[in-house]
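INFO  loader      accepted 1 record
INFO  loader      residues=412
INFO  predictor   begin
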Amino acid sequence: MTPLMLPCQRSGIICSASFRAHTTGTLSKPPSHITWVTPIRRSPWTLRRDVFAGVGGESYLGGNVAICKISQNATERKNKFFPLGVFGKAGRRRLCVRATSGAPASPEADKRTLWWQAIKLPIFTVSLVPLMVGAAAAYLETGVFAARLFWAFAVAGVFVIAWLNLSNDAYDSETTVDLTKAESVVNLTGSRNGVLNIARAFLVSGGGLLAYAVASAGDVRAGYMLAAAVVIGHVYQAPPFRLSYKGLGEPLCFIAFGPLATNAFYFAQAASALAHPHVLTPVVVGAGVLVGITTSVILFCSHFHQVEGDIAAGKRSPVVKLGRPLAAKVLRAPVIGLHVLHVAFVAAGWLPWTCLVAAAVTLPLALQMEQFVTNNHLKGMKVAPAKIYATKWHAAHGLALSIALVCARWYL
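INFO  predictor   done
INFO  writer      dumping tokens
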């Protein structure tokens, strides 16, 4: 249900209206229990009941929040949606409140859910997949796997992604992109500087561990490539660059996690076997391209449910530029392109034929993702899980590709 939003400004507060226009800006007693709030553009999150306690609204998530007068009969109905207005620098955000006569939800349980969403555990696969594929490509050519080096890079990669996620929340808090994003770490903690400092600590720890691993491997080229990938991560999100706001996130993501990270881990693993290849071989070049494609698709899919907020904040994501209907069709291009490249690379002798099996077994996940976006791209928050579908495809394809390269060493 889309709420009726009739703006009425009073002391900086944007009020909504339900069932009848309420133009005076007067606030009244809220429903008996506020169990949860659903932003139109995002997944469910809980709003503190004390937000409604004071007359005139209360600061929350960077804006003044207030509930308008609603008829008593309406508040007594279970599972009834009531609109709420949020006023921020870039204008109004629309939310819905569900009021019930039952007991309120546990704040502790709600906060645990939000923190779980804030951690974004599935997204850490973007650091592990290049490592797995790069190590598998090196094993295919050298027959050596440096387990200790692998795990050092894995931990370092987790630290770097933690920096990327936390600093992204901190920098986005400076705009209105995350105004209603309850799972933003800044919104959960209320401290932008604290989150940014923790992010920097993760970067220093991850960078130090990467330097140690590169020094242990003995190939400085891996260090240069990984440093370049980190720099790309910075200019992607941080001011004054904010290249993601200019619609350049996907190509930057492709370069950082595809050719740069995958090839860097290949060089490091190959050097541990004293191979020290002078140039990149076709197998790792092809594999890096494939990894870059699936990683970029995750970012692309994350935009569909955020179009209104991105527009308000001046963020020109590809989905904003193309529009949701065209963007949903464009999503078919990387799905088709990746499988065409699999065939082309195998036909050219760049990849072993086992990689065709990897593409085939993960194709259903790609089609599931594409079909989900096609069916839901115009349905508001229903399209939000698209990035989860994309992450599943990315992780499964990366694992299958790694296994295919290892098996090629054993059986070909």
